[in-house]
Amino acid sequence: MHDKPPSKLAGHLLHRRPGASRPTRHRVGPDTFGLDQEKVLRFADGTLDPTEEPRLAEEVAEVLPLGWSLSPRAKERLYTVTEHLGGEPRLLQWLDRHPGLPRLTARLVVLTGTLDRYSDDAGVVEALRSSRAEEPLPSGLEGVLPPETDEETLSDISYRIDELPFERHPQDAARLALATTDWLRSAARRAAPSSPGTTPRP
Q1: What are the backbone angles phi and psi of residue 146, rounded to the nearest 5°?
Q2: 111 φ/ψ angles, rounded to the nearest 5 degrees
């Protein structure tokens, strides 16, 4: 089981899904585009014009899903930005302040981390099983959910959400993320109040 809760993201962003097989037909090579070196250096030393920061955030959001496939040079530039901001959680907070792709990328990372965190939680798995007994194929998750609900179900969805930006389909990832959160809210409402880990937040 992948363990990457939002509070423990160290090492995750540059090493996504180690050992996993990635489709190559949509892959965008890390040297096709990337982080502008001059912009990164000026950001790190505090001299980047504020009007240029949104574009830098866009560049970071574009390369972040490539993770482990980035070239060493691209990884070094991403590391420079991350360290300047104070670590990976702060990087996500910074991206979230910029609308569009940066914000979407940050929120997808947090969501996949949360899905992985609760994937093998017995109370959550049971709530999801009960929910599927009433609604076997929740809207928007047709073709994504496996036939059986088990400790891998949320991790499998997390993997697919993670994979779509890698394949350069961020809006598809956003739609899947929304469908997943809608399903989880519905499952939490159906769950008994005493079920651990399933009470929906207001």
Answers
A1: -70, 160
A2: -65, -45
Residues in the chain: 202
Buried b or exposed e, range 145-171, using 16+ CB within 10 angstroms: beeebeebbbbebbbbbbbbbbbeebe
The b-or-e profile of 48-76 (16+ CB within 10 A means b, else e) is beeeeeeebbebbbbbbbbbbbbeeebbe
| Helix (H) or strand (E) segment spanning residue 131 | helix 122-134
Report the 10 Å Cβ neighbour count for 133: 10
> Strand, coil or helix: what is 178?
helix
The secondary structure of 42-76, three-state, reads HHHCCCCCHHHHHHHHHHHHHHHHHHHHCCHHHHH
d(CA 54, CA 137): 39
What are 130's two structure tokens? Answer: 């009960």
pLDDT digits (tens, 9 = 90+) for 99-141: 999 999 999 999 999 999 999 999 999 999 999 999 998 989 9
Q: State CA 198 to chain mean position distance.
A: 21
* Phi-psi group of 116: left, alpha or beta (phi > 0 → left; psi -120 to 50 → alpha; rest → beta): alpha
Residue 15 pLDDT more than 60?
no
In order, the DSSP letters of 72-100 are HHHHHHHHHHHHHHTSHHHHHHHHHTSTT
Site of tokens 């994504």: 144
Q: Where are the beta strands (DSSP E) in 88-147?
A: none
Look up the pTM and report it: 0.79
